[in-house]
Amino acid sequence: MESRSLFSLYISLTKPRILFFAVLTFLMGYSMAVLGRPFLVFHLIWSTLAFTLISGCAAALNHLLEKDIDQKMERTKNRPLPSAELMPFQVLLFAMILLFFGGVMLILSRQFELLLGCLGMLLLYDFVYTPLKRVSWLNTFVGAIPGAMPPLCGWISVSTSFSWPIWVLFAVLFLWQLPHFFAIAWMYQDSYRSANLKMLPGIDPTGIWSAILIIFFTLVLVFVAGLLFFVPYLGWLVGGLNIGAGLWFLWTGIRFYLDRGFTTARGVLRGSIIYQMLLFLGICLDFWI
């Protein structure tokens, strides 16, 4: 394996792809809340940076907590800790630095509600969901909660009174993760089993229940996402993309039901990503056009 720079190793601890998704949905929540209110660019940048730092801390702590698991799994064995390119104390120090600066930024700006939201997300992700993966396949449902919290954090950085549109977006993100991660669990079931992680395929060796749950939650997702059509400043574009991409996503689930293999599970995974990208594109275009 090629040696990596220290900078790239520390960046990888923040799980950049997941972090990008979290920041994007944070900004969606922020944008929904700021409608009809004074818009301050500095406040947006400051809040987003603080959220990014604390989210990066959560990801780095996850590396530390799952070091033994990552060593056993083919797709994670080259992460900085199992590859011994970084030591545990370095990862812990990096995580604490991110948490310190992110927390101080929110305290200085008196955004105590956002600080509590970020810490709640971190605690659920690292100290509830992560250990639960060793106990029960239901961890997927628990892990979807912190995964859907970034838009709530974006909202509370502007307003502490919630309205129904932000809960719709939270529900969409929660539901989207279920078929997405059920597909991943099927694709990498051998790796999860070797690491002694409890995933749905462990109690569903034929994959029939995995397929049924993928189809069911995709249907619920498309229905709930349809409510975005009624959100102010959203409309036909997000509604049309939800139906079009949602039907394609559903079809990938049906294909997996008919032939429960690695290739069809990967099709569900790709379908989930395409659906998410198109739905978010529709939200952004509807919102800003």
Tell me about this structure:
It is a single chain. This protein has about 290 residues and is an all-alpha fold. It has 2 domains: about 1-160, UbiA prenyltransferase (Tetracycline Repressor, domain 2, Orthogonal Bundle); about 165-289, UbiA prenyltransferase (Four Helix Bundle (Hemerythrin (Met), subunit A), Up-down Bundle), CATH 1.20.120.1780. It is built from 13 helices and no strands. It has helices spanning about 5-15, 15-35, 40-65, 65-70, 90-110, 110-130, 140-145, 150-155, 165-185, 190-195, 210-225, 235-260, 260-289.
Question: What is shown here, in short?
Answer:
It contains 13 helices and no strands. By secondary structure, it is mainly α.
Ordered list of secondary-structure elements with their pairings:
Elements: H1 6-13, H2 16-34, H3 41-65, H4 67-72, H5 88-108, H6 112-132, H7 139-147, H8 150-156, H9 164-187, H10 189-194, H11 208-225, H12 236-258, H13 262-288
Biggest beta-sheet profile: none
Number of separate structural domains: 2
Q: What order do the helices and strands follow?
A: HHHHHHHHHHHHH
CATH class of the largest domain: Mainly Alpha
- The count of helical stretches stands at 13
From the N-terminal CA to the C-terminal CA, the straight-line distance is 47 Å
Radius of gyration: 19 Å
Mean pLDDT comes to 93
The shape, in one word, is: flat
Features:
289 residues, mainly alpha, Tetracycline Repressor, domain 2, Four Helix Bundle (Hemerythrin (Met), subunit A), 2 domains, 74% helix, 0% strand
